[in-house]
Amino acid sequence: MLSVPGEEFLFWKKKQLSKGGDHLSFAVLLDCIGGISSNDLNLISINPEGNLYLKKNLEFLESIWNEHLLKSCPIQYLCGITFWRDLKLKVTNKVLIPRPETELIVDIVFSIFRKKSEKLFFAELGTGSGAISIALTLAYPFSEGIATDIDQDALEIAFKNYVNSSKQSNLKFFCGNWWSPLESFKGKFDLAIANPPYIPQDTYEKLPKEVKNFEPKVALLGGEDGLKHIREIIQKAPLFLKEKGWLILENHFDQGEKVKQLLIKNKFTSIEIVKDLSGIGRFTIGRYK
Predict the structure, then answer these.
(1) Rounded CA gap, 266 and 264, in Å?
(2) How far apart are alpha carbons 178 and 181 in whole angstroms?
(3) Which of 2, 69, 191, 263 is 20 to 30 Å from 140 by CA-CA measure?
(4) What are the pLDDT digits (tens) for 209-219?
(5) Is 186 helix (H, G, I), strand (E, B) or coil?
(6) pTM score, two decimals?
(7) Max Cα–Cα distance, the chain, nearest Å
(8) Distance of CA 66 to the CA centre of its chain
């Protein structure tokens, strides 16, 4: 560990943030690479006469921050780590960086299945980093889950994240497109979850460069209207869900009503558009019959 006087560190921090970027990205850099937690930052701000102990020197941290600012590369990819709920997850440009709003999917599951002792059998389609499935298997230790992804590289990252986050063995990983790896589990799932690519083509072209130039296109682009993958998932869901089984989907901010109509057309009931913390209809849920 490297020791740096608090006053020197605070001056350096102010200088880095004056170049641009946001405080959240800078905090990720400090925590993931520097080993400096938000608690450490608070303490040194209160008592700058103390010393701060770093895993890497300030020059190295500055070089990563400069690269982030120069290339607009997400800091999570440069660090190889992101934080999501209470998880610390490995990420590369093979997986989407899990968003804070997606954390609400786990809370929606909690509101449906209130007992953590429940023995759920769930599927997550398009798991990416594995964030949602890992959070659910930790919260429901008696449950069994299957996480799928079309990309073998993404699945390997998700598996590593699971091993690093849990001592359990209640989550399996299958490679394939949406429901296709789950043919042997028809009619078995209590719950299926997907945060599929839902960005319409014209919207994708206008995405910020830090998203469009670095995050995997396959995890973002949802066809011309953004509903290509959502449509397929909903149409096939009745084959795989138990009767009264739930489907939870994340969708684009303006797709809730269209997704609701697709669920109605495919014989789902108890349909609800759930708003995120910004008041946007971010999730659409339904129960099969």
Answers:
(1) 5
(2) 7
(3) 263
(4) 889 899 999 99
(5) coil
(6) 0.91
(7) 65
(8) 25
